[in-house]
Specification:
It is a single chain. This protein starts with a strand and ends with a strand. The relative contact order is 0.12. By secondary structure, the chain is an all-beta fold. It is built from no helices and 23 strands.
């Protein structure tokens, strides 16, 4: 795979297979990493190392490995003096998981639970070992349902995205969205909030000021959507479609479907997308 990295030091770097990219966080750095391979395949190693020196400034270094040294997988072993003699070649590892499943089969994915804040858990369903994506959706998180205590800080501070789009959809609660292109939007249940990162955007999602210091409900989804390769470096954008503007269909007796994105049941969502996408509630 080819990995694209964006960090708070202003670096935007592509790392081809076999090269070595080292980032020292030091006193603190924000970064994001994205698969920049056209077919979105990928296989890589990431190693975290404890620093023995504190208070140093963050830094970044990329080592280009000569083409003749790129033979199979690279095994990286840390040496006491940090010397490059610790880099050695080894044969490719066998693949143990068959890619995906035929489209006419039902594949049940089980989310992995993570604690985001006291009393707030996140269930991540995509990417999964069995399937990295479903259609254009490459990331699927469900947070809550939960009732948060007044002292719980559930804010997600400023962080970057690049080369994709994010979709936030709430069932309960509310959040304040702010981003680096000047968008300020209250996100409420039933609305669709589609942020196109393109060549790069920074955003935050925080508790509404009126809800601070109070018990509050929260439950929602955040998805990431792959952009067509030709649009991965487009201008960033944000669109908000209120809940009242989302088409609602009586699909069967006692069954209502909200057409959040795309077209279904002869209804079309007003949300603009870069490729054909269907997202229903």
């Amino acid at each position: 795979m080819r990995k694209l990295t964006l960090d708070g030091m202003g670096n935007v770097k592509g790392t081809p297979p076999g090269d070595d990219q080292r980032m020292s966080a030091g006193t603190g750095v924000v970064h994001s990493e994205f698969n920049h391979t056209p077919d979105k395949t990928g296989h890589f190693l990431q190693i975290w190392i404890t620093l023995h020196q504190t208070g140093i400034a963050p830094s970044d270094e990329q080592k280009t490995i000569p083409l003749e040294s790129k033979r199979g997988r690279l095994a990286l072993v840390a040496s006491p003096d940090g010397g490059n003699h610790a880099v050695q070649n080894c044969p490719p590892a066998p693949r143990s998981v068959e890619e995906g499943a035929p489209m006419n089969e039902t594949l049940r994915l089980h989310g992995r639970m993570t604690d985001l804040a006291p009393g707030l858990r996140v269930r991540r369903t995509l990417p999964a070992q069995e399937r990295r994506s479903v259609g254009p959706f490459v990331f699927f998180d469900e947070f809550g349902p939960a009732t948060l205590a007044p002292e719980v800080d559930s804010d997600v501070g400023g962080h970057p995205h690049i080369g994709l789009a994010t979709v936030t959809y709430l069932f309960e609660g509310r959040q304040m969205h702010r981003d680096s292109i000047g968008s300020v939007q209250l996100i409420e249940p039933g609305a669709v909030n589609w942020m196109t990162a393109g060549r790069g955007i920074v955003h935050s999602e925080r508790t509404h000021e009126a809800d601070r210091g109070r018990s509050r409900l929260t439950h929602g989804l955040q998805l990431w959507v792959a952009l067509p390769p030709a649009l991965e470096d487009c201008e960033p954008a944000f669109q908000h479609v209120a809940a009242a503007d989302i088409p609602v269909v009586d699909a069967a007796p006692g069954v209502q479907v909200r057409v959040l994105v795309g077209s279904a049941f002869d209804r079309t969502s007003p949300v603009r997308t870069a490729s054909e996408t269907v997202y229903l509630d």
